[in-house]
Amino acid sequence: MTQPTCTQCEGDDLEQGFIEDAGEHSKGYARWILGPLEKGLLGGAKRMGRPRWQIDALRCRRCGHLELFARTPA
User: Fold this and answer.
1) DSSP characters for 5-26?
2) Phi, psi of 44, deg, nearest 5
3) Which residues, at least 6 apart from 45, have a Cβ–Cβ distance to it below 8 Å?
4) Rounded Cα gap, residues 74 and 55, in angstroms
5) pTM greater than 0.70
6) Residue 49 — left, alpha, or beta (φ > 0 → left; ψ -120 to 50 → alpha)?
7) Cα(first)–Cα(last) distance of the chain, in Å?
8) Tens digit of pLDDT for each residue in 28-44?
9) DSSP code of 27?
10) Binning pLDDT at 50, 70 and 90, where does residue 17 land?
11) Distance CA 57, CA 62 (A)
């Protein structure tokens, strides 16, 4: 795999991180869920039975732009 570059400034110094979810009853990290957002009776997102992927985030040290990838099933 080639070294990723920033799609905004073309910088090549990207650092890896993750997106935090600090909501009530959260596991501490966000996930990408397949399909459009559908809300349930209590206003929460319907997620049962939907595939989920870990969100990998790369931040450009030069301009601060975030690149998000969902490559790994969660």
Assistant:
1) --TTT----EEEE-----STT-
2) -80, 160
3) 33, 37, 38, 39
4) 9
5) yes
6) left
7) 22
8) 889 999 999 999 888 88
9) -
10) very high
11) 15
Cβ proximity of 57 and 68 under 8 Å: yes
62 pLDDT band (50/70/90 cuts)?
Answer: very high
pLDDT band at 70, cuts 50/70/90?
A: very high
With cut-offs at 50, 70 and 90, classify the pLDDT of residue 1: low
DSSP 32-70: EESS---B-TTSPBP-TT--EEEEEEEEETTT--EEEEE
Cα dihedral across residues 6, 12, 13, 14: positive or negative: positive
> Which helix (H) or strand (E) segment is 60 a member of?
strand 52-60
